[in-house]
Design brief:
Layout lengths: L15 H4 L2 H5 L9 H4 L1 H7 L4 H16 L3 H5 L9 H10 L4 H14 L16 H10 L9 H19 L5 E8 L7 E7 L2 E13 L2 H4 L5 E8 L3 E4 L13 E14 L3
Helix pairs in contact: 5-10, 7-8, 8-9
GO molecular function, one term: NAD+-dinitrogen-reductase ADP-D-ribosyltransferase activity
InterPro entries: DRA_trans
Pfam family, one: DRAT
């Protein structure tokens, strides 16, 4: 099967086909979006001097000052026509097929070269109705103001800095997702056993750290081991501003070694 990522470029300095592969997941390296750490180096140096509980307040205050965000924008509840990074991420947690989800998927495509596979339908070609609708949503002017991609770049880099200090010591996390074989946004690209596959995930997708919550969202349950470098956002670095009860992780896509497990 031809690798679809051969035609995709990125801003992370390694080839997209490798970043999207299970080989990268097995032997990950540190990833940075070009220029972000360098541009905001003083902020990241300040973070290193503070304890874990101080990171989220410092991050949100930095975003407030840098992008002139008000209190409502920093909670994602602003009623303004334009929307910032918190509105996008809160919208994703509500439903990843909303326009906010399309913008986030577009950002993942732009920065990491990962292919969008699904948004309110399978994206089979650039001239299909589903893809044109996806394009219209991800480029909507409501969400493209105040350097929204730069805001999301900082979210990723901040979360990565947090996980490097306070995340799992081995740099890996076990995640679960409800899976529907006939109507799922992932593609099964290789069958390795009766319950083991290589799944090609959407450019961004949701998993859970909690098996029992993941089991509510599909007729099958799959488990993966993901490197923290593939985590875009989760509750802990955000200091409780996102719901933590479901253990939801917004994960960058590509190919993952996936194992079907029993519900309980």
């Amino acid at each position: 099967m031809e690798n679809p990522y051969l035609q995709y470029t990125n801003l992370i300095g390694i080839p997209t086909p490798f970043f999207a592969s299970i080989q990268y997941n097995e032997s990950p390296s540190e990833i940075h979006i070009n220029g972000v750490r360098e541009m905001y180096q003083p902020f990241f140096e300040v973070l290193d001097r503070f304890a874990e509980e101080d990171h989220a307040p410092l991050f949100f205050e930095h975003m407030r000052a840098l992008f002139n965000l008000d209190d409502q924008e920093l909670t994602g509840k602003s009623k303004r026509y334009q929307a910032g990074f918190m509105r996008l991420i809160r919208g994703w947690f509500f439903d990843s097929n909303r326009p906010e989800g399309a913008v986030l998927k577009g950002w993942a495509e732009s920065r990491f070269g990962l292919k969008a596979l699904y948004h309110n339908g399978i994206l089979t070609g650039i001239q299909t109705p589903a893809y044109l609708a996806y394009m219209a949503e991800k480029m909507h002017p409501r969400f493209h103001y105040n350097s929204i991609y730069a805001q999301l770049d900082l979210v990723y880099e901040y979360v990565q800095r947090y996980l490097a200090r306070f995340g799992p010591k081995d740099g890996r996390i076990t995640l679960y997702r409800g899976y529907n074989a006939n109507r799922d946004e992932s593609e099964r690209v290789e069958t390795l056993g009766s319950r083991t596959w290589v799944l090609r995930n959407n450019c961004l997708t949701s998993y859970s750290t909690k098996l029992e919550r993941a089991s509510e969202f599909g007729d099958r349950l799959i488990k993966i081991s993901a490197p923290v470098q593939k985590i875009f956002c989760c509750a802990e670095p955000m200091g409780g501003k996102f719901p933590a009860a479901e253990g939801e992780i917004i994960l960058l896509g590509g190919d993952y070694l996936s194992e079907e497990v029993d519900f309980f």
